[in-house]
Amino acid sequence: LPAEDRKLLRNIQKFAKESNRYIRATVILMFDDGYTPTQISNILSVSLSSTRRYLSTYQEGGIEALDDDNFVAYSGKLNDDQLKELDVALSKELYLTAAQIVTYIKNTFHVEYTENGVTALLHRLGYSYKKTQPTSSKADPEAQKVFLDQMNELFEELQEDEVLCCMDAVHPTHNVRSAYGWIKKGKEYYVPSNSGRDRVNINATLNTKEVTDVITHTSDTVDTESTITLFKEVEAHYSNKNTIYIICDNARYYRSKKLIEWLKMSKIKLVFLPPYSPNLNLIERLWKYMRKTVIDYHYYKTRQEFTEAIENFFKDLKSHEKALTSLLTWRF
Prior knowledge:
By secondary structure, this protein is α/β, with parallel strands linked by helices. It contains 13 helices and five strands. Helix content is 48%, strand content 10%. Strands 3-2-1-4-5 form a five-stranded mixed beta sheet, sandwiched between helices.
């Protein structure tokens, strides 16, 4: 914001008698301070569409347009208290269809909405239609919290001669996976598929500080021997490091006697995740991105073509740097 505009907006905040006038000025100031429209909407309890409207009004017409006495923002059929009550209800219980929410609004507030209308309302409130995420019922939240506290400390205090990696194995199947896409109504989009069950077995490490720094090892099976082979490649790759921390799950081959003996002479130190905690392993997000980029709705006639596509993905990770840097953040 220009200094003069910031000063004027502060004066509007200070002397505004109408709450809506105060909120319009506050939205612009918060956006300039680095808040996203969604964050501003949640903090000020203003609909997301109104927040964006205030921003576009200022961008197009400046403070004069924003502070016009005739400025009227669409508030919808529900008042602010009803919107807050609806938001609480949606946060407590999962509704699978817009029709269910139409019924809830009608029974609770005696207000009629169409399904399209309630869909637009949900978007304004910051909701989107997406899949639920399964989580293990056996996971221990307290153990996960303790682990994260320890890893956050290690991550923040990592020395120049140390590196922190995440490790996991993935076994993509040579076949297509159905995915969402924009397809014309009444039409189908067919993708050829394979009947085989051939898998590509990959074990890999991911540098938590440089997310395109990934070391992979492909083998017939992921076991102690292939893990040691990967570790040798990791040591060679980080020859300038004195300590290599690797976060991994509790797979049997990571705890085998042979591997434990081998690690005694290595600068690799394994850090084991709490049981049933794949959500705390950063590399899991890389596997998801890889499947979406290489496997979903992509047809490979032969296993060799399938394997080469995956290998080329890892060779060309730098071209995905922007997406991976955004996705593979140290936040859980």
